[in-house]
Amino acid sequence: MEIWNKYTARIRQNILISSEETKDLKYWRDDMFSNTIIYIIPLSIIALIPSLLWAFESKLYIMIWIDILSVLVALFIGLKKRIKIKHRKLLFIGTVYFLSFSLIYFVGLNSTLYLLAACFLATFIYTFKNQYTPALLNCYISAFYIFAYYLNFTPSHRIDFKSSELFAVFSNLIFLSFLICSLVPKLFNGLDESFKNNIKHTQKIENQNKVLKDITWVQSHIVRTPLSRIMAICNLLKEKDNTEEEKTFLMDNIIVSSNELDNIIKDIVKKSETIHSAEN
What we know:
By secondary structure, the chain is mainly alpha-helical. Helices cover 82% and strands 0% of the residues. Residues 27-191 form the MASE11 domain.
């Protein structure tokens, strides 16, 4: 358990080091990417052994190197320090697409699910200028494979399939890819608006709390000074042996202290009005 905690802390520190502290939508997408890397590394290492055995038995030696390279890239993305998260994401997406295409090319159409997963992951963890970029990549890969298939450039597979099956599989892949690229950004736009509203609401509450703390401090400290002065002067005026000059001096001080207290109260009222205006 301690090893796992150190492992997850290392990856999160490497990936989220450049993320903003404000937990907005960008932060959560980066956090989701870090969690993806955290779980993909051990799972890919576990899956590597049977994949290598299968590739060796099938004499697909190039797939052995591709599988090993993919795992090493995942380790590099998660454990290497001082890399911008944008570059980590692009490297991860590129590796997933490269692995997916390699599986389709060397294994067959039953591996098209990896391209769909690549599209899904790319849309979730990265914001593309063109939201349909992952779907377009699947279009290009599908077209390239079909072109290579008809020119007999693809290796022979154990499972034969008809041309109609070829078009059916890739057309469904493209359809689902564009569907993902259409729906996921809409989901994120709604979440982004919700995050922004929550952040604004939190900031508003924090500002109001700050104003209330200022008002409390003013009431307990600044108001006390002129009020104590007025109370002390009133006690002095009760004395019967005060001369007229002393009484005039004391009355003048009461006026000064009263004006000072009045200004403080006006300042408190202004601060209170900022709270009410912020609520409205």
